[in-house]
Amino acid sequence: MVKDIIEHKQAEEELLLLQKINNMLNAGVGQEEVFKIIVDGLRSMYNYESVAIHLLSEDKKHLTVDGYSSDSKLAQKLEKLTGLTINGYKVHLYEGSLFKEIVDTGKPVIVDDISWVLKSYAGKKIPQSMIKIAAKLTKANWGIGVPLLAGDKIVGVIGCGSVEKLTYEDAQRFANFGAQAGLAIESALTFEKLETAYDELKHSNKLKDLFIDIMRHDLLNPAGSARNMTQMILEDEKDPNKKEPLKLILRSSKRIIEMIENASKLAILESGKELKFEEKDIGQILKRIAIEMTSLADEKNMKIKTNIKGKFKALVNPLIYAVFSNLLDNAIKYGAKNSEVIVKIKEDGSNWKISIADNGDGIPDEEKKAIFNRFKRIQKGAVRGSGLGLAIVKRVVKAHKGRVWVEDNPGGGSIFFVQLKKA
Length: 423
Ligand code: ADP
What we know:
About 50% of the residues lie in helices and about 20% in strands. The chain contains twelve helices and 13 strands. The chain has helices spanning about 1-25, 30-45, 70-80, 100-105, 115-120, 130-135, 170-235, 240-270, 280-290, 295-300, 320-335, 390-400; strands at about 50-55, 60-70, 90, 110, 140-150, 155-160, 280, 305, 315, 340-350, 350-355, 405-410, 415-420. Adenosine-5'-diphosphate binds near residues 358, 361, 363, 385 and 414.
């Protein structure tokens, strides 16, 4: 009868403890506090000597003590003896360890010899002699370890040491509690992870803004000066030995500027800011970019042919320049020497269909989609690039509700197509 009453009271207390945990979770209380409530609650409810929560690592190779409750003098003595800190202690799951058995089988374990538990804690880290002393320090002889379950998944092990004899029923009841507490722990952990991820995201967004600022103001200006000065010196330089390195500096500084501009364009697009659109003739834009790129094409003895006649009005943002100049730049970069790049616009129902064709090596089918992803570069020998260009093209075209894709050029090489709505 007395036992019945005690058990009934304990069941009630258990329920209250679980409710308390639930309330704490709903209130967004952190993992550490929730764990403390669990271990303290269990210890006082059942008069155990010690209770500890151990969380299982992602790779399932070890457990970490993530909250414990015990006579504070005992904890101090054990820490002093071993020179280790209990909270955060890593328990390795080696063959033959009690903890490994619990994790592997998902079943509770009950022992009547605490030194076995201590051995499982220690692994090879703590010598046998120390384990004997530790076993004498704790008054507990009995131990129970149960899996902490979140549904079918083991998230850890909860264990207790007891002076009084423990029975199979105790283990069973403790396991039931473990199954319920596991769910609570899992949600506490998820909450904690979400909070950290949110903080990291906020932090990295701030960093991103800072980098965009640095790029646009602090890097672009000096890079621009370097380019302009080199250009001026190069124009006056007569000595061919000095001309070559100057050309190299000029090319490099142009590349730096191109990369900074591309990266900050991408950052603007990804920041989700609304773009403004104006009616423009995209035929004129294409012709202008083709003229600007003539000197680049000359370096490879290439010709840019723009067969564009008539008016091609569309609602565009100035970022559309980046689309056409990136595509044309690629056609020259990856096109064959002494070949032609052909730029056309055709009417296609309610759209304009722009095409930029080159006679390069072309793009294998399996890469045709992936090249539009950020930093995707196919090995291109000596051709240097950042892998940002097409990512920008794709995002800008998307912002215009248009479409961009690549097809094989029947005459060899590739044709990039851009479809934009007519104004
Ligand atoms: P980058 O040219 O800076 O590497 P892009 O994003 O502009 O970056 O292009 C991504 C990849 O797509 C390039 O590295 C290249 O492998 C491939 N590519 C792009 N345009 C062409 C083209 N016209 N012909 C062949 N390959 C191309």
